[in-house]
Amino acid sequence: MSTPVEGAAAAHAPTASEYISHHLGHLSNKHQDFVVDFTVFNIDTIFWSIFAGVLGCFMMWLAARRATSGVPGRFQAAVELLVEMVENQSKAIVHGDRSFIAPLALTVFVWVALMNSLDFLPVDMFSSFFALMGWDSVIAYHRVVPTADLNGTLGISLGVFFLMIYYGIKIKGFGGWVHELLAAPFGIWMAPFNLLLNIIEYLAKMVSLGMRLFGNMYAGELLFLLIALLGSMATTFGFLGHVVAGSIWAIFHILIVFLQAFIFMMLTLVYIGQAHEGH
């Protein structure tokens, strides 16, 4: 027979759906009543995005500071390989001045890769820490992966959207850019249809860029939560499933983390490269 304390603990134990819903909640400045509400700020997404950005800048600064002309160490060799890879990709895609574009691509790759890598932290680490410190009543929800938040990924893709417009105007001039919006691809006599088509193309690039990264990282985070639930089963299957499935998925997720960062960087280069070319 269970004691009253054990009975109370069991009564307050979250169900699987409550556990997942809790871990998918954001630390926000206010409750979001509508799907689109620009007055709501996900504080956890903003914090960890800035954290990953500062960490990435520090790593690149440290690599530049420690760079030597002699035999490079492991860290310098890894950074040199990364820089060379980004430089080769930007050279093959963007035909023009790449003095800003190549560093931009490197920044995007490192930043997105670091934000994605936060998914490797244990799913209950922060909630357990907040409960231990007595902060769980203040920080009831917290998500650590910014790229698993659609607001975060669309925010980055919005920056790419503005860069597409900027380089379109810079390369072709404002008049040439407007003329392309009205005349491509079916000629100036179909200007209204061309304008609508080009606006949809710009928006589709931005939305698909953010949605692709969000979908992959959200699915990965959800799978980690489902695997964590296996550990709550006091059975051999639950323990083995938690350890084996968790290990296999974590190893496979390493590929996803860096592959998604690479794809985001490549699409950024492709979209900016298209702004250098005419229809």
TrEMBL record:
Membrane topology: Multi-pass membrane protein
Transmembrane segments: 46-64, 100-118, 148-169, 181-201, 222-244, 250-272
HAMAP family: ATP_synth_a_bact
Designated name of the protein: ATP synthase subunit a
Function: Key component of the proton channel; it plays a direct role in the translocation of protons across the membrane.
Keywords: ATP synthesis, Cell membrane, CF(0), Hydrogen ion transport, Ion transport, Membrane, Transmembrane, Transmembrane helix, Transport
KW DNA damage (keyword) present: no
Family according to the record: Belongs to the ATPase A chain family.
Compartment(s) where it occurs, according to its Swiss-Prot or TrEMBL record: Cell membrane; Membrane
Pfam families per UniProt: ATP-synt_A
Highest taxon listed in the record's lineage: Bacteria
Xref: InterPro entries: ATP_syn_F0_a_bact/chloroplast (IPR045082), ATP_synth_F0_asu (IPR000568), ATP_synth_F0_asu_AS (IPR023011), F0_ATP_A_sf (IPR035908)
